[in-house]
Design a protein that fits this description.
Radius of gyration: 21 Å
Number of helices: 9
Strand order of the largest sheet: 1-6-7-5
Distance between the termini: 31 Å
Strand content: 15-25%
Organism: Gordonia hirsuta DSM 44140 = NBRC 16056
GO molecular function: 8-oxo-7,8-dihydroguanine DNA N-glycosylase activity; class I DNA-(apurinic or apyrimidinic site) endonuclease activity; damaged DNA binding; zinc ion binding
Protein name: Putative DNA glycosylase
Helix content: 25-40%
InterPro entries: DNA_glyclase_Znf_dom_DNA_BS (IPR015887), FPG_cat (IPR012319), FPG_N (IPR035937), H2TH_FPG (IPR015886), Ribosomal_uS13-like_H2TH (IPR010979), Znf_DNA_glyclase/AP_lyase (IPR000214), Znf_FPG/IleRS (IPR010663)
Family: Belongs to the FPG family.
Structural class: alpha+beta
Length: about 300
Amino acid sequence: MPELPEVAALAAFLDGRMAALPIRRVDVAALSVLKTADPPWPALAGRTVSGVDRLGKYLVIRTLPVAVGSDESPSGDGEPQLDLVIHLSRAGWIRWSEALSPTPPRPGGKGPIALRVHCGLPGEGFDLTEAGTQKRAAAWLVRDPAEIDRIAGLGPDVLDISRERFGALLAARNSRVKTVLTDQRVMAGIGNAYSDEICHTARLSPFALTASLDDATVDRLYTVLRTTLIEATQRLEDVGAGGLKAEKRTGLRFHGRTGQHCPVCGDIIREVSYADRSFQYCPTCQTGGKVLADRRMSRLLK
């Protein structure tokens, strides 16, 4: 799943290509991706992109009506602002192209394209794609992102949180560290991969209870969190959309490396699986040598 560094890089990438350009057309290939009907999706056509931003792990493409007297075709609506908000979920991605087919993708087709946005010159624009059978990517067209319940319920952006507020957020809950770090209602931006990296670098068990952490541990966790996300964001700044996934995998020293040797102590990296995902930890670095129970494996062995 794209997390704060990747979504920030995608927002910067799209902003550099779409800002000040008109949206010529929007093609919907998968109705499941659409989460709003008012304003109608055709209202985007003829509007100008004013910028692309990030809210937590959401992309926000902001548009304005074409100015009176502009050489561009007039906008089809009088809305002062319309935002196209995209959540990529686990398997969604943005594919920019300068050779988009003028033929709309077939609605309900078996391909990965969910939404196509034609922007700028003919052939320019992007596809919102989603791999796999579980279609969780989502797109909203709204006058204000706060109209979206999931965004209205977001906690503060994780990089905007002070050390004092971070400590207060942890102390207010007696939950596992990993659970709190990835709860978007507490702090927005961190997902499964970077929470693994943060917990390992901070030498904390993902199952440690937040209310039991002393000040020194909270200091360490806060510093590691910021350093991990900022360094990842900076590393991805100049990487095009097509290379972000590979660059993320290269930059992760720990997540997704079950069975390999810990880069710090050399112990074997272990995994805990639950539902349809898993996380990694090092017994020596994080749990005092204790091997955590893997619930999925425990059920299989019964």
